[in-house]
Structures
1.
Amino acid sequence: MSTATYTVVGMTCGHCVSSVREEVGAIKGVTGVDVDLETGRVTVTSDGPVDTALVRDAVDEAGYELKP
Amino acid sequence: MSTATYTVVGMTCGHCVSSVREEVGAIKGVTGVDVDLETGRVTVTSDGPVDTALVRDAVDEAGYELKP
């Protein structure tokens, strides 16, 4: 099992959190997504390591930005 | 046809706008809802006058507050 933490910029409310959770949660192998609105911290749990590019794409898809 | 304008407090993003539009748009007689995120202004177009209490309830239901 892998856990990785990212910072997402631009989330303002619970709807934003849901969007990010949904998109990131749809990545293959991802088993859990924890999003903290206040800090923008997104913790992703997965079966194995997940390519950051996939997380970045999912966050983009949700309408937000992964902090470099 | 009636048009009334309200101010809604607490909307932060496009998802919030959609929620308000959906709930207010579900009020009987309402034919159009225009929401401006920047100002919080919500313009409601309807067949006839709409009870403000119904608009307030709909905004509450969406998770926001109608400015008194």
Note: Helices of chain A lie at 14-25, 52-62.
2.
Amino acid sequence: MNDVMLKLKPARRERLADVLYGQILEQITGGQLVEGAKLPSEAQICREFQVSRPVVREALMRLQADGLVISRQGIGTFVKSRPSDKLTSFAASAEIASYLRAFEPRLALETECAGLAAMRRTKAQLNQIGEALAALEGAFQRGETGWEEDFAFHLAVAEAAGNELFPRLLQDLRDIMRGSMRMALSLTRRGSEERRRRVLEEHRRIFMAISGQDPDLARLYMRFHLTESRARITGSHGDR
Amino acid sequence: MNDVMLKLKPARRERLADVLYGQILEQITGGQLVEGAKLPSEAQICREFQVSRPVVREALMRLQADGLVISRQGIGTFVKSRPSDKLTSFAASAEIASYLRAFEPRLALETECAGLAAMRRTKAQLNQIGEALAALEGAFQRGETGWEEDFAFHLAVAEAAGNELFPRLLQDLRDIMRGSMRMALSLTRRGSEERRRRVLEEHRRIFMAISGQDPDLARLYMRFHLTESRARITGSHGDR
Amino acid sequence: MNDVMLKLKPARRERLADVLYGQILEQITGGQLVEGAKLPSEAQICREFQVSRPVVREALMRLQADGLVISRQGIGTFVKSRPSDKLTSFAASAEIASYLRAFEPRLALETECAGLAAMRRTKAQLNQIGEALAALEGAFQRGETGWEEDFAFHLAVAEAAGNELFPRLLQDLRDIMRGSMRMALSLTRRGSEERRRRVLEEHRRIFMAISGQDPDLARLYMRFHLTESRARITGSHGDR
Amino acid sequence: MNDVMLKLKPARRERLADVLYGQILEQITGGQLVEGAKLPSEAQICREFQVSRPVVREALMRLQADGLVISRQGIGTFVKSRPSDKLTSFAASAEIASYLRAFEPRLALETECAGLAAMRRTKAQLNQIGEALAALEGAFQRGETGWEEDFAFHLAVAEAAGNELFPRLLQDLRDIMRGSMRMALSLTRRGSEERRRRVLEEHRRIFMAISGQDPDLARLYMRFHLTESRARITGSHGDR
């Protein structure tokens, strides 16, 4: 492990933690920060990036949650793994941080949607989920990213929850969800066959649990799918 | 138990299940449907209210979830308890159903907010939650409903979750949340001293769990509070 | 779909529902009950098997939860899928039902263990989990079932939870857990390479989440693993 | 806040963390450690008590989770609140720590039991839960602690879960559960009327959720009850 200079441009924008997250991510992806490299201390980053301590902490916490760095108490923070360099070719790095953040409310909302859908879906709603699944599969076979079909699938589940507030809230997240889906699925399209198979299988399980009217199973599979989707973006499981 | 005539006006609006829910609620509150009375069969309600079976099922399912009716398999559906007649003086009955529905996405979103807030809140954010709590207590002492203070408390928790999408989504629910808070707290204001004490205590626990940085506890207390708030509206626990 | 005669031997033992579950499972596995076949009505099964209605309901509910039959309200219960015929060569069919039942307390206990282990594990405890994982991989490579290594892994997670009551309770379930692990892993050994890969990956994820000190992730991956293990026994996902 | 001498007797027994927890608890209850007092550093406690760092951390973590001390990062650990001095008159302080530990597996197991009971309970099983509830109320009216009735209630819920492994596991925890119930309810008997009312209400809610066949509600109310029971022992909510 070796200590490195981290190059930071002072920033003055709303989500400072995102910008900082993005700059560090960029340097990991770009190879300036290699695996095992030690990041500067929180205090140093504060000074150099000209932000307060909580902003630095938030950015580091997210990088750690994404499996990109690891903090060892009393020693420091180290680069842990390097995500696909394709990642930063799809979006500006601050935008990537913002896409990743969308998974938090999605986990909360969509896990609940899946459970309610398993209890309440009408036959017509189930068919709509099934059709979105088939459309996603078709898009993959045609070599497309399938992000519109992906969004349609998740919206159909929200509609099957039998409470119109759920699709409304998902619509509020639409732009950010689509951005993250496009990015994730672009990586998947260029990734292995195995990776596409997994994405489909995760959706299929959600469909089956809703079809089988098992709310606990539907919640589990939705939560698993969203967690894995996020991990596929940050690359924390490798190319899968 | 005796069979009764249920008077229904055919309706043609978007949320038919809400309108149906509201009409039945009104007759229970108004005393036309007394405890133990048997509702007409699903098929009869379909015909009379001129809606499809899923609409009737949804309305009955919600009435049952709210503890207002009870279904006995193969026998029928019976009126179980009668909510405060003050209830329908605050809002049109279809509106009440819509307020109640807001608790579903709130449970999903706010439970998660409370957990994240316990992990991430800054000292300033914690103070803001504490101030909203004090303001709610003050409002109660002045004999006000305190619904604005209540909303401010929940928004402060969402802000402490460290992800700006949470307060944004809560803002989307603002009107419907405020409606339900105003209704619930109006009932509370006219209710017993004990009831006000409970409302405050539930908020205080959420604050303490976030202050103590215990995410599981914060989730539990938020979930408990929202569940109890809903029950206070439908009156399923009595005047508490 | 065609109606079939279900051959049942009246039974008088403690877990009547298990025995009934086992007899129906046996006839599905053995091919007497083919896909799409309609089971006799609850009332008929009561009479023929000479048990009360709740016993029949419990057995049918479990068969449905295991994806072996499907109930269509007001129409009847139908055979949905046929598990591997290897299944009943490993254990008497009532024993299989008892093994499957062990997953319920395991889901409750071990999900919590995984979460606590992520928060509390010492370095030595983490190493022990890692060694059990390596041992399981080794067993698979040598063509063994690896059920002792599997049990050792789960026990190591329970020990890392920092509360000696968890390993004690797991020891109480030891015999039934080992029976179900032996059965599941025997099916896996004879199954596809893909299936072994999945079993290892599920364990590896649990290890990584505990190593990364992420309690929510550890809970999710443990719950996913146990759910999938159960599904691998009943064959509800096919040979995976 | 003032720095104090903490008197510790070196110990060599299996659950060192419990013994250490108990000694500190005793000094808080006994008044040697007053509110606001600063505990010695982890390193000092290690030396004086002659145990390793993880043992000290575990004891402090539990004291903090129980609301008895609070850690301020980089500053130290301080006494936060003083539980009822009646507490240590009921049991040796290491025993108290062991009773408190029983709540962890109980939360995992009994939350799940309550959910399954809501889905599966027969009418006879529901009656048994109701009778245990009535017996607990009777015991309170006669001025008894009611701990046997309390255990009977929880066992009846486990039996209604429809899986004999749950009551079996609860029986394994019987002695430790009874110890903690006896202690908690002795405190309750000497406590306020309000406190007894709450204990009954918590049980009544669990019963009602199981009766109303609402698994999510049953899980929530069981989790709430167990969390509050634990808090009543450590006194972290005051005399309630």
Note: Strands of chain A lie at 69-72, 76-79.
3.
Amino acid sequence: MTTSLERFYSVIPAGGIGSRLWPLSRADAPKFLHDLTGSGTTLLRATYDRLAPLAGADRIMVVTGRAHRSAVEAQLPGIADHNIVLESEPRESSAAIGLAAAILSRREPDVIIGSFAADHVIRSSRQFRSTVAEAAAAADAGYVTTIGIQPTEPAIGFGYINSGENLGIESSPNALRVRSFVEKPDLSTARRYLRSGEYLWNAGMFISRADVLLEELGRSEPGLRDGLLELAAVWDDPALRGPAVDRIWPELPKVAIDYSVAEPAAKAGRLAVIPGHFDWDDVGDFASLAKINSGGRPSDLAILGENARVLADSSSGIVVTQTERVISLIGVKDIVVVDTPDALLVTTRENAQRVKSVVDALKLSGRGDVL
Amino acid sequence: MTTSLERFYSVIPAGGIGSRLWPLSRADAPKFLHDLTGSGTTLLRATYDRLAPLAGADRIMVVTGRAHRSAVEAQLPGIADHNIVLESEPRESSAAIGLAAAILSRREPDVIIGSFAADHVIRSSRQFRSTVAEAAAAADAGYVTTIGIQPTEPAIGFGYINSGENLGIESSPNALRVRSFVEKPDLSTARRYLRSGEYLWNAGMFISRADVLLEELGRSEPGLRDGLLELAAVWDDPALRGPAVDRIWPELPKVAIDYSVAEPAAKAGRLAVIPGHFDWDDVGDFASLAKINSGGRPSDLAILGENARVLADSSSGIVVTQTERVISLIGVKDIVVVDTPDALLVTTRENAQRVKSVVDALKLSGRGDVL
């Protein structure tokens, strides 16, 4: 008999531009292709490296857009063709993760998959992996399992998971039942969550037996599940795959896996959560990027950019630069400056969430050349 | 007998980088070579055009650095060689204006000169010229004469002139005696000045008979005056000018004309001032530039740049751009963004005066390539 980790397969959905990180993140240079920690590694590569020790680098599947194929292969040289799933167009996370589940399930009926975003930052890889191992055990026991991050502050930028009683799974002693998912709270609610000790940050990580995930998906989105199974049935046949994709993929419903799987499973008591005691951030906006890169001290000025030439006086916040220009800041607090060859953003931490609206405005005003 | 305006000769000292306008103003692109009002004209050209109607375009002398010769000639095509005085190195305003006075005085002993900075902004040219005409009349009566701008607000960025009694000059009915020059005041002092009605902004304009100016200069700086007279004596001899410049110019004392001429003359009761009722600004920093270009409304965002592509949301201040980059501002108030191909400045109106310190820091840190 194999262990749950031996049957484990990582799935990295690498989609999403990260509009709140414009002008750094773009359609042709999405967030996961950037080094956002100054480590010298893209987020995608860091995710891959973090997952490789779990069940081997040959058991990591990347689901990404056709347009990103060469960039992804450049980041992950040697990745096998059967581990790259290309979407002809974005159809949201249920389709992306569900397709991986369906393909892998056909190849290995007892596979346990774990889905991890390509563009999050995690500090302690060892802690992360031991948590995933425990989640895989809970998944093996039949639960759709998520990892909830133990909050360290009353963050308002994340969704929360309300956790309940211990599920009593022998090989997964920390697995708790999930009562519900809750949306990003306001500050006072976030404070209450933190005090209660019952809430974890929703990090969007899902670990599940592939068949269980597809069953759960079939309950809420039967058409989507059927489409994915149909695709998977021909996926490994080069002659049939293309026509099937062209016919089926564009018709699949666009729905986030949180809504199609996680929330319904939670309602039915079939969702488990393992509390994760490691540093995690979804780097959702420049305020978050500033925090990650400044050691958490609000007085700091974080600087990101290989060739950064920054001269700052009485300034805090973050400078992200892709150019070699001298950037001088004087007396600007909590500032966000993002300097790229064709676009410049100047805002503040407080306004970081509003960056997406700029992207929308640029689309509307015909300046899509910089998106 | 000729009128005072017929004997008038304009002098434009075009020196000074304008460090507080870095990274727009540079050693090789000083302030006077920029269009800072969005008019499509450099400040130098606007100054020239404003002065030309006074005594004719052929009676305007520009004193500038050798390095700027071709840029100046490009701005003022057709300017005669005898109207360009080239400094081998900057030696401050007493030397620059004094040399022009000495040269012109040799060519026309009864010349009246008027010196006007190349990099100030004046709105109402007609009002300006009638004020200069009256100043020329006061100069003809033997006074070193300045034009003081009637203050419209308690500005703290300008020096002030304390004016006294009317001098009773028939052809210059508004000429007042200058009691003293005062440095840039603090806000409460500036308010008191404004209320008193006795104070005018020092716009650094000097109108004087050339011989009177040189006499006044000789009192405080006899060595400087003698050097200038020696230079002027050979200036129009091409064979002798070069060696004289090489020998004399580098040894001349560096002193502002305010200290060498204006203040001593004021103390001795020999300085007159004509109140000027026209919009004037020395564009001393980006706060001033913002004011000039925003119609004075602090809620406005001023945008300067031929190819500006600015998208602003809830932002005020000024954007100056020399590039075609999309510049997006979100929720930044009183911001100053100066975008050039090799340097970017982000500061606030309040900190505008501190820009010079950046220039100093860049010099010290070996990043003089962007100065």
Note: Chain B has two domains: 8-281, 286-370.
